[in-house]
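User: I'm putting together notes for a lab meeting next week and I want to include a structural view of one of the chains we've been expressing. I don't have a solved structure, so I'd like a prediction I can at least talk through. The sequence is below, exactly as it appears in our construct file.
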Amino acid sequence: MDGPRELQPEITASVEEASKNEVSVNQHRRLLPKLVNYNRWLRIAFYTIFLLSGQSAATLLGRLYYDKGGNSKWMATFVQSAGFPLLLPLLFFFSSPTKSPNFTSKTKPKLSTLLLLYLGFGLLLTGDNLMYSYGLLYLPVSTYSLLCATQLAFNALFSFFINSQKFTILIFNSIFLLTVSASLLAVNADSENSSGISKAKYAVGFLCTVGASAAYSLYLSLLQLAFEKVIKSETFSAVLDMQIYPSFVATCGCVVGIFASGEWKSFETEMKGYEKGSVSYLMTLIWTAISWQICSIGLLGLIFEVSSLFSNVISTLALPIVPILAVIFFHDKMDGVKVIAMLMAVWGFFSYGYQHYIDDVKSKSSHNSANEAASGQVEIC
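Assistant: Thanks for the context. Below is the predicted structure for the 381-residue chain, given as structure tokens.
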């Protein structure tokens, strides 16, 4: 008769221990999403620093190349993609046999499909980089940087048609502000010609920079579409692949352009006539190439973690940085019209950023609601 009474404390202790274990597991499950989200934002911050520092340094070094005696558009285009071998150790380091849960042999794209993607993106990058080189040659670096902000407006259009991005009042406001900002710079063209650049060359630089911004926005939207519809691999090595192989194609295209245009014949003379000397000439080109690769890693990382739209928004953060540095190092004019254009472009950036913040809050809210509903169903079962 005493047996069941003696077992009762042990049963009670076991129940209490099981209850404590269950509470511990539930607490761990609650903390795990927060830890994952914390790590994700650390990666986003890391990519943002890479993008802003690389973009600012590459733009200023590109202008320095032209100001000190460089004149080759194809060489300036070449260094924008030629630094891709620096990423090969990263590709080896991040290559892993583990795949994402949604990545199977059925979803793996064919080699021919990947080759077409690399070829298409590489050729698009070649043309885009060449237009940027013309823009940087014929425009003051501050004006060039402000015009590059128009890629936000182009990206909104391409994201709407290609990535199903919704238009809102904030996005329309941003597009309007960026358009007016670019228009102010176009109207203010006469005050920019004090450096001896003809109106025709200024117009070419203006159109090439705007065209390059449109082409780059198209590239970003197509890249996001390729990740979602074709590659379907949620690994950083996939991001590196989409940087290395198209860059290889773009570099080959630049080599063809260098020899076809005959610019290779003047490289030795250009190096000897460089104001800072031959060593400075080589170091300027080398560090420009390195800076563009740092920028590309940050850009592709943000596309991978968030979206092409977000990566483009972050790249626009360099907008107030580069013109100020250009005034300091290259003595660019910063007149009233340019200041107004910069403020309007920054306003447009914040409109975009706030819209992304609203979308992020809504996404988290719907995700939490779905988790609560799922938890309620598990408890009922």
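A couple of points you could mention at the meeting. The CA atoms of residues 46 and 371 lie 29 Å apart. The longest helix spans residues 2-67.

User: Perfect, that's what I needed.
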